[in-house]
Amino acid sequence: MIRAWDAWLRVLERREGGEALAVFRILSGLAILYTYIPVIAAGLVEIAWLDVEYGGYRPLTGKGSWLITALGGLTPELVWSLVGVGLVSGLALTLGVGGRVGGRIVAFVALQTLLALSMINGDAKGSYDALLNNSLWLLVLGDGTATLSLDARRRGGGWRSALEVAAWPRYLIIAQIITVYASTGIHKVSAFWLPMGGYTALYYILLQPTWHRWEMYWIAWLFPLTQLLTALTWIWEVSFPLVGIHLYLRQKPGPRGRLGRLLTRWDLRTPYVLFGVSMHLMIFALMEVGPFSLITLAYYPCLYRPEELRRGWARLRARLSRRPT
Fold first, then answer.
1. Minimal CA–CA distance to 21: which of 140, 132, 109?
2. Could you tell me if 59 and 156 lie in one domain?
3. Which residues contact 172 (CB under 8 A, 6 or more apart)?
4. Are residues 300 and 273 in contact, defined by beta-carbon separation less than 8 angstroms?
5. φ, ψ (nearest 5 deg) of residue 37
6. Distance CA 97, CA 106 (A)
7. Mean pLDDT per 10-residue segment, the chain (325 residues)
8. Same domain membership, residue 192 and residue 246
9. Which residues pair with 212 in a beta bridge?
10. 191 and 127 together in one domain
11. Residues forming beta bridges with residue 15, ordered by sequence position
């Protein structure tokens, strides 16, 4: 028990650069903005988040979150105030203001605002709202403004800072994205995702007017490709915990055994990340699912240690500088 407690304390005491958490913060902030701006631009604020009495499309019988109740109930003034606070907190999150404590407060305000609005109308929210709320909770726990932020520029005159942050919030972020993909794959119990259904899930999804951005009957010409992508997507999701096992074994001291050596022989993150980025970019281009792709991709940088991100960025800049003009 004492050894386990000491190991736990060593995990909590571990420090690292703040780049991964900073990129997570920036993309989460952009996802917040992408949640509100399209709704405002389309003139749907009252329609989606107000009762029919105030211009909504249906009666809203629920009371919403504790915040709406505490602020006097659902009114147009309150909804627009929440939207305004959500926009400001999303922008502040993206830019990285508030410092070590204030940055957490900004994330908490963004969280409670989004939570309040998403609980108003169950028909006007998606699973990405829950994932974005979880992301904001993780930013309440971790210091996302240490670098790549206005705070860093104010402290040292540059956007980047060598200030270290606790590593365990990044570990929680990794655990979250592994849970998301594994549980999503396990819950795909429809036969259409499996051989008995002909791997036709993506084909039918892309033809649903509820999801696609435009008419996509041309997808019939690519039916075999949609079958292949359906199979690969399901396998990729249910096997995503291998990435977590790979990361654990890489940092675990001592002998790894035959299976451990097999799982660490190559960097498993690379194929999983490449497939995931390609998949989410395709979803974003072809389907209307709100900020789902953006907030999911926000988790990917945290699969890498900050020094790995720095090396990758340096290599990319070097390659770009060598290109002929």
1. 140
2. yes
3. 138, 141
4. yes
5. -60, -45
6. 8
7. 73 90 97 96 94 89 82 93 97 94 96 94 87 96 94 89 94 97 92 92 91 87 95 96 93 75 86 97 92 96 96 88 68
8. yes
9. 287
10. no
11. 166
